[in-house]
Amino acid sequence: MDAISEAAMQRVLIVGGGAIGGFLAARLARSGVWAALAGRPRTADVARAQGGVRLVETDGRDEVVPLPVYPSIGEALARAQPFDLIILAVKAYHTDAAAREMREAGGDGVSVLSMQNGVGNEETLAGILTASPILAGAITTPVESPGPAWVKVARPSYHVGLAPGPRAEEAAHALSLFARAGFKVTGYHDYRALKWSKLLMNILANAQSAILGYTPAQIFADPRLGNLELWAWREALVVMRALGVRPAPVGGYPLPLAGKAVQALPLGLMRPIFARFIVGGRGEKMPSLYYDLHPQPRAPSEIDWLNGAVAREGARLGVPTPVNAAFTRIMRALLRGEEAVADWQDRPEKLLAAVNETRFEEERP
Questions:
Q1: 3-state SS class at 125
Q2: Cys-Cys with 314: which of 56, 257, 319, 325 at CB 3.0–4.6 Å?
Q3: pLDDT tens digits, 9-22
Q4: For residue 362, what are the CA distances in angstroms to 32, 161, 190, 317, 334?
Q5: CB 102 within 8 A of CB 135
Q6: What structural domains does the chain harbor?
Q7: Residue 281 in contact with residue 236, Cβ under 8 Å?
Q8: Checking DSSP bridges between strand 11-15 and strand 85-88, what pairing results, if any?
């Protein structure tokens, strides 16, 4: 039996009814894979009423893809077992709770693929689901969710990266699933390289956008703010080197070459290149951290798995990370209500001063 036929026989549960979870569930189900989605009760209600998940592609195709949608992980595992693969598409701050719910519902032992942003999710899963092979994945398709059980592709970039993670020796079965669903799939040997490289993409013009209320284009239009983004990248690259992790190409983007250029060439030369990359890649879509503060702060946030992960590992390894540390500290203060979001909006001088203060604190003996 060939890999594509085997893929059609797989039973897959996607956990997380947001934009990425709904998108993956719809694409897999449309390709012939038996796929189910575990989301919130409201998502399950809307999906039941409309007959599945509504998927809008960039070519104008607008359809409802039939698939079962459950209001919780526990109900999905109770009513639709057995599953061959569970794909986790929740925010990083929900990983611990989702893994515990899977374990309590009898899901420990099923292969789990983390398709989440940030670093550390695979280790959390491995620590809770002690019998499950853990795989790592990354997707670069910009997707938005206008409403429950409704996903819209913002740009047709159907790239998926997959790697065996903790306790997993291979990811061939997952590779065939995504290939069948029309994705361009790339396999990686080192899951840390995949996830840290995706982090490099995720942190670009993300925290600053949230703090200042600026679009990515506005950030890179200001040389001072654009330089901060490149400094944050340089810090992340030094941390990666200290961890023994090399940048890897993700989604067709030459991150190893970009990393070398950012470290070796003048910022003024690299800034316009990164501006074209980030603005062209996201289009008009605001980055994820922006929505953690707008229209009002809502904790928790993925900041601790993005810039916060760089700062945390840097502190552990003795690598200075003042830009990432400052972004993280300010975001935490805003999310907790310790500082007002309005006091930072459109205040680049205040942000630059905060970064300089953090740099001074890190350099002080």
A1: helix
A2: 319
A3: 689 999 999 999 99
A4: 54, 35, 31, 13, 22
A5: no
A6: 3-189 (3.40.50.720), 198-363 (1.10.1040.10)
A7: no
A8: parallel
